[in-house]
Amino acid sequence: MLTLHGYYRSSAAYRVRIALNLKGLDHRKTFIHLRNGHQFSAAYAELNPQQQVPTLETDGGDMLVQSSAIIEWLEETWPEPPLLPADALGRQRVRALAAVPGCDIHPIGNLRVLKYLQEELGQGPDAVAAWARHWIELGFAGLERMLAEHPATGRFCHGDAPTMADLFLVPQAFNAERFNADMDKFPTVARISAACNDLEAFAAAAPGNQDDAE
Amino acid sequence: MLTLHGYYRSSAAYRVRIALNLKGLDHRKTFIHLRNGHQFSAAYAELNPQQQVPTLETDGGDMLVQSSAIIEWLEETWPEPPLLPADALGRQRVRALAAVPGCDIHPIGNLRVLKYLQEELGQGPDAVAAWARHWIELGFAGLERMLAEHPATGRFCHGDAPTMADLFLVPQAFNAERFNADMDKFPTVARISAACNDLEAFAAAAPGNQDDAE
Prior knowledge:
2 copies of one chain form a homodimer.
Chain A: E1 2-6, H1 11-23, E2 27-31, H2 42-47, E3 55-57, E4 63-65, H3 67-77, H4 88-109, H5 111-119, H6 125-148, H7 164-178, H8 187-197, H9 200-203
Parallel strand pairs in A: 1-2
Antiparallel strand pairs in A: 1-3, 3-4
């Protein structure tokens, strides 16, 4: 059985939780408390050299890191239901849509970056929250255009079944709410996020439904 | 023929240049001057809704964005020489190694983020450079462990031929030099970067060899 080492509020772990649920894969979960610094323990560093979550542990004892690479592996290993479309241009589009939160929003606003702003650069809570909102709204502005202006957008980011793109969108939309981003400016992103959250695979993966939720 | 819209010093465009060269694909290049804000022109926004580089324009007029998704598309469309290994676990590893610069280093230290630190948070040049170095060294510390401790690491990140992982490592190592990161701490990263730069496909893609280099 697979074991997911995660944290309830980690966007990257949240993406993998959704993927495991959509694929219907039985798995165990352990929780690494990021705010309390448990990712820096020597024991966890053995599992994940970057001391980040998630880590997906296989039956064979392989430790898979980096959410996007884990999700590609899940897709290759358990192709059904598919999280990527069948055509190469469609796959390119889905991966690009996923990369907007994955590369252009989330890394700039995650816990360790916000901590650096606070602790090393002496920024107060308002400046830190404004920073997080700025990158969310800038990234979502691009994502909104990529979705609203493209004929392949359907009930979900690409057609009428969830793809890898939705796995990245939903945790970022959750995070956007925490930082009071103005989602009225991104109606397509908000609509797709709501459609996803109607599905059990997404709802069960939500931070509030994890055993380590506070 | 493919057209790459890029900028000589963009890490993301640099990755795609290497991929095009390794695949031996004829292509045109245009240059979008990021420091002068040419990515914000209305004309460029039509090509790339995020107003970033790179954009890869196909013969059919499709505009492909996000370097990792572009490289996956190149790999699927022109499989030789392969940039991903044949086995699923190897592919997972290579994608994870690529994601360290792609998601955990580059996004936090790119031009727009450094500009925000300067212009919105009033940080001086020393603090901005220290920020860039901090995320480079933190990311490379993880990457070094992932490479040095794994039996699949060879002359390159995964075996003795370049893969997607090397396409991400080299531009980040170039960027690390600009910010005076201490590469002595990352001997495997430095060794692989040098091995890559011995290859014509990497050397020809270097920022200094682009027509818009300053």
